[in-house]
Amino acid sequence: MEQGGYVYILASKGNRLYIGVTSELMIRVKKHKNRACPDSHTARYNIDQLAYYEVFGRIEEAITREKELKGWTRIKKIQLIVFLNPTWRDLSEDWGKPSPPFDESKMRPPTTFQFSRSKQQQTQQQRQKPIQRFFASLRMTLRVRSCGNRNSNSNGNSNSKTTQVSNCSRASTPSSTLRPA
Known about the structure:
With 181 residues, the chain is mostly helical. It contains six helices and three strands.
């Protein structure tokens, strides 16, 4: 039977940090808070507030992560805590307390957003502009490539080459400006 694991970071009010690993997070944190081992580092420096923890499916993964976190700089550890727990709240303070009953009357009604018609049209136009630019550049690229392929002539005849270049220039101009030759 595989047992999961936890990596946790405890903090003191004086901003000391302790990183540990356990398979029973609630029991381990309770031992830190009750100072079960009075000579331990956490008891000596009053490190007893759970600031961060991670859950793993296997204890080996938790041990690997603990070693990784212990290798980090203090700044990086603090950034990790602040990212997920910006107020440094003790995450274990609510353990064992009954949760309040759900009260639907305290919920906000659903919020829907409606744009005016002109804003919707503007939004659609803004979305279409990059797409239109992309296809316009794609058309130009294809024209240039197709003209380049027409310019290569195996005969080496210069008259046919100029004819082909003029055909390319016609293809890139609008049909209304073309005159019959």
